Give the backbone structure.
Amino acid sequence: MEIIKRFFQNPEESFFLFGPRGTGKSTWLNMQFKNSLYIDLLSPVLFRTYSASPERLVDLINGNPGKNPVIIDEIQKAPVLLDVVHQVLENKRGKMFILTGSSARKLKRTGIDLLAGRALLKTFHPFIASELGERFDIDESLQLGLLPLVLNSKNPEEVLNAYVSLYLREEVQSEGLVRSIGNFSRFLESISFSHAGILNTSEVARECQVGRKTVEGYISILEDLLLSFHLPVFTKRAKRHLIAHSKFYLFDAGVFRSLRPAGPLDSPHEIDGRALEGLVLQHLRAWNAYSVNKNQLFFWRTKAGTEVDFVVYGPDILLAIEVKNSKNVRIKDFKGLHAFKEDYPQAQALFLYRGKERLKKGEILCIPCDEFLKALLPGKPIEVF
């Protein structure tokens, strides 16, 4: 696949750029900054050099005064460099740093606190449909996901299946984040059943035969490695009794499919439905991250079980979205949207499905899911009504 233009817009000041492995951070940086001073800490030699002598960074910068910005790839590998970065930012005005990372674990307290106010925090995501244009295929995306590392490969299925193993080897195992890699591997399979669902840590613990506290620690590792996230409940001016627990998602539909075991007793329709819901959400997250006006993403669920998959809330938007892996529009699928509209009459309601027609059912607009995803453009509002 040829190089695809990304929607991410770089700030004009120093920033952290976080994103899971394989999302294309390094490719984008190499294309965007031809005159940069580039340090790749995945190189064993450079890792050893700068871990042992972080002050060497100052010598490198002084020896290359015409090079700007200074890009340090995978900064979490050597967080001691952040002290030097802070020093340079204090003393050399006009010097810009871009610090990339595929893990926030080591930087949670040191890096982010140290450079607060001096470096913005940005995120990089897998491809979205509007970046791919006509190359976007929703059926393929539901199977392989949208990681550039996977889609640019000659053997995408093999690369996808090896993707999590890469993390296990290079992040989890090498950093000594868990005592038993076997327990963690079983946990990854078990947690895949929670994708697009309410997370029950006790149930996951029973499935993978470890303690609940251990599972909570494992989930924290997934979040720190940017492989998963939680979606909170929308509770603003709530008129009903709502649940308190958030929903759990893996960051990419393909990664979910690679982890989720399937057998004769598993429903392909259920797996496809969860993959579709996750695919829509990863698009909404990227759209939100790349847009200037930040909105917030939620889901909505009453204690009685009435639910709306996603709520987009911001200064100029209150949008309820229901996603169904169905080629037909059924009135019963509108139950959650109708309930939400009763509580929030000013909200717009959108129903995404796998059919081919745009339909209007009362106040609810029904749109083919792939059409919605292709029209989602960062920096622009969701204009579907």
About this structure: The longest helix spans residues 268-290. The radius of gyration is 22 Å.
